[in-house]
Amino acid sequence: MRRRLVQLGAIFPQTEIDGDARALRGFARGVERAGYSHLLAFDHVLGADPDRPGGWSGPYTHETPFHEPLLLFAHLAACTERLEFVTDVLVLPQRQAVLVAQQAATLAQLARGRLRLGVGVGWNPVEYEALGVDFGERGRIMEEQVAVLRALWSEDEVAFEGRYHRLHGPMRPRPAAGAIPIWMGGTAPAVLARIGRVAEGWFPPHGDPAALAPDLARVREAADAAGRDPRSIGVEVHLPLVARERTGGAIHYDGAAERARRWEESGVSHVAVNTMGAGWSAPEQHGEALERFRDAFEATR
């Protein structure tokens, strides 16, 4: 059997490209011209003081800008033709499920189906507190939300009675294909089981194929137990072009491309290249880096 080739995506560098609409459009067009299949954007509703318990951690500070991803994608869909737009991930329990269903369906219609909805439960209780949602219930809320989304996207008449949602009536517009692919992020055992039961794909945080394998096996076991084809579940990993990739002050594109090839051989279906944090501020610089990585990756095949 011929090995499935990985799809290359790019991560929107929100820390370097802020509110300049022309720069946003230029970056998206450059990603499309470079032959990438999709563009990912992250989601946070508000920041938090890192010194406060539950505040930011990792590469962000409370001053880091985050564009609302669905609005961002609606803008960029108008200036691109082929690029798929991916939320990685929309913190779904912080949002009203019926409204998200309509927003996503409208975006999918305007973008001619170029939307993949990645969702997750988040990790920052400060955001949940501000938005009036129970942080401890977020996993259960999200699983029910996914059922609500799919019902509204596919059924002529919706009658849903759940623990967190009660609704009666249809929604228009609906996605032309009858659904929008839903992917999920996370590695907790309950999350892996949920992905296997209900998601079309998974965003793992792992940095190498060996670490990925045990959790991917759990996802596939859950899919098999739910009567689904385990191999139908996509997997997308991030590949950073940052300081740790530097050799002699320059990005080591060949090394990054070789890592992407190893991901491809491990069964990963999508690789998203991250140019944030490498010191570039202009959209053209990010675009050039993506082109150079693509060329290096193609040379490994």
How is the topology of this model organized?
Layout: E1 7-11, H1 21-33, E2 38-41, H2 69-77, E3 84-91, H3 97-110, E4 115-120, H4 125-131, H5 138-154, E5 159-161, E6 166-168, E7 182-185, H6 189-198, E8 201-203, H7 209-225, E9 234-240, E10 246-247, E11 250-251, H8 253-265, E12 270-274, H9 283-299
Parallel strand pairs: 1-2, 1-12, 2-3, 3-4, 4-7, 7-8, 8-9, 9-12
Antiparallel strand pairs: 5-6, 10-11
Helix pairs in contact: 1-9, 2-3, 3-5, 6-7, 8-9
Top keywords for this entry?
39% helix, two-stranded antiparallel sheet, 9 helices, 301 residues, alpha/beta, globular, 8-stranded parallel beta barrel, single chain
Give a quick rundown of the structure.
The chain is built from 9 helices and 12 strands. With 301 residues, the protein is of the alpha/beta class.
Kindly describe this structure.
The chain has nine helices and twelve strands. It starts with 6 loop residues before the first strand and ends with a helix.
